[in-house]
Amino acid sequence: MTEQDFLKLLNAVVKLAKPFHKEAPDLDRLDIRFKETTIDSLDMLMIGLYLGDVFGISEEDAKQMMVATPGELFEIIKKVATKFPDDVDKAIEGLK
Amino acid sequence: MRIFLTKASKWHGTDLELIEDIAFPQKVFWDPQTYKNVQTGLFYPPHRVAEKSLTSDLYEHVVANPAGKTAFILAGGNSIFGGEGRKCSKPNKLSYEYKFLPLSLTHIWAGRTASNFGSMDHIVTDATACTSGLKVLVDVQTLIRHYNFDRVIVLAVEDQVNNMTLQFFGESGACLIEKTAQDEGVKPSAFDAKNFGFYIGQGSAVAIFESEQALMNNGSQAILELKGAWTAAEGDANAIGQREDGQGFIRAMQGALEISRTAAEQIKIVKTHGTGTRSNNLAERHALTSVIPEFVATSYKQKIGHTMGVSGLLETLLLLDDLKEGVVPEIQNRTEEDAVFLSSATQAPDGLILSLAAGMGNVYSAAIFNREV
Fold first, then answer.
1. Which has the closest alpha carbon to A38: A52, A62, A21, A22?
2. Among the three residues B224, B253, B281, which one is the final residue of a domain in this structure?
């Protein structure tokens, strides 16, 4: 999975995780700090669990993914993932 | 201080489907999409049901028209979000686990939802069984009249199309199960000699109430006036039953009449609780005919199912839609001619509206509304 594909997937997941109708930030680079966006700790928990579903990560591991940047998140996922989606758009659709 | 409904939104399940893989097969009014992909644990049907009524239009209206001191009430009904409703001894299509446990805690989800409307001065959750949607109107009038709130946003929601409720209601005979419907040739109805009972339904409703002063300040348009609401219990009642003399309904009605300074003669239209169970038929009919001299009464549970905690508010909003057309609809599946507990739709008379609800745990609510705003 490329960094661009990961950012595309992450942005879609953030939209799902944010409260209904709340504007989601645009995460356009891997080193942006989540704290500098509108993503809060509850959002991060949900983002971890959604990504856990996509990458086949256990619930316990997914809940530990409370990191500072998308880049750090991507690195953890590469270590613990048991699967990678062939098609990012299909993975996003599967989360709805 | 007068209180007005200024904006509302509602949703209820419209697919009538027989759920067969449960102990007591029965029909439900629902949207199967609310259970889509629930086995992943990433989706929670009660949240999806609530979001059906949480429209962009509502958020934009609230944010664009600030009204001062604002409260948010989540009327969560019976088992509310942290409940056991999803569980079943034999997994079926209604079974699920939910991974976002903080959001299954009702008040955390309420706070998160309230934040969509902007900052709040007060957030509260309510679980007054099947009266929740009407009972919280007592809180609305208290907050506005006694605590100087300008706006109260009410979200009522319930997803009782779940394993626990279908099992409990089916086993107790409180709802109409398929076997009874088939064996006895019965359809859902209320106050009827032959047909009786209800199906369970999903529903949600949002209603925004504002003080007269807030309306003058922000220019919102009044849809309806909430004149007064009251909630009461019965004496010596079974907590999961009803007194057949209707004492709970009578106390709730008398409380609402008193607090709204309304004479019983002014009530002309009644939205009943209207579950069609034997005990509710007796209790509600006796209470109404004892207190209100002349009225026409309808029920919506035959059309949308019993949406439980949201039913009082949701059905009142449905009545408003019908009244805009000048009609009080009939109670479906009546087999007798009846000009009071309506067997046919009738032209809406002038006068005030009374909405009633009853709930397990010995609770009854009444609210009085005025269309002349």
1. A22
2. B224
Range of the domain at B268: 227-370
Q: A48: domain range? A: 3-20+27-94
Q: Is A53 in contact with B51 (Cβ distance < 8 A)?
A: no
> B215 and B302 share a domain?
no
> Is the confidence at residue B84, as pLDDT, over 60?
no
Residue written as tokens 């509850």? A42
CATH of the domain at B266: 3.40.47.10
Report yes or no: B40 at the A interface, CB cutoff 8 Å: yes
At A16-49, the pLDDT tens digits run 888 766 778 899 999 999 999 989 888 998 999 9
Structure ipTM: 0.85
| DSSP sequence for B279-330 | HHHHHHHHHHHHH-SS-EEE--HHHH-B-GGGHHHHHHHHHHHHHHTTEEPP
- Positive or negative CA dihedral for B323, B325, B330, B331? negative
The mean per-residue pLDDT over the stretch B136-146 comes to: 98
B103 and B140 in a single domain? The answer is: yes
Residue A42 CB coordination number (10 Å): 17
- Please check whether residue B103 touches A, CB under 8 A: yes
Asked if B73 and B153 count as a contact pair (C-beta separation under 8 A), the reply is yes
Q: What is the domain count for chain A? A: 1
Q: Pick the residue from chain A with its C-alpha nearest to B57.
A: A21
DSSP letters for B237-291: --TTS--TT-HHHHHHHHHHHHHTT--GGGEEEEE------HHHHHHHHHHHHHH
Q: Does A42 contact B54 at a Cβ distance shorter than 8 Å?
A: no
In this structure, are residues A38 and B25 in contact, taking their beta carbons and an 8 Å threshold?
no
Residues B207 and B291 reside in one and the same domain: no
Token readout for B288 is 């109404």
Which class for B207: exposed (0-12), middle (13-18), buried (19 or more C-beta within 10 A)?
Answer: buried
* Cβ contact B367:B220 at 8 Å: no
Query: What's the whole-model pTM score?
Result: 0.94
Beta bridge partners of B367: B229, B355
Instruction: Give mean pLDDT, residues B143-172.
Output: 93
Q: At residue B87, does pLDDT exceed 70?
A: no
What does the alpha-carbon distance between residue B53 and residue B314 come to, in Å, rounded to a whole number?
11
Q: Which of A20, A49, A50 sits opposite B51 (nearest CB)?
A: A20
Mean pLDDT over residues A53-58, rounded? 93
Tell which residue, B19, B18, B30, B76, has the closest CA to residue B304: B30
Distances (CA, A) of B139 to B109, B153, B308: 20, 11, 19
Q: Give the burial class of B351: count Cβ atoms within 10 A of its Cβ; 0-12 exposed, 13-18 middle, 19 or more buried.
A: middle
Beta strands in B143-193 (DSSP E): 151-159
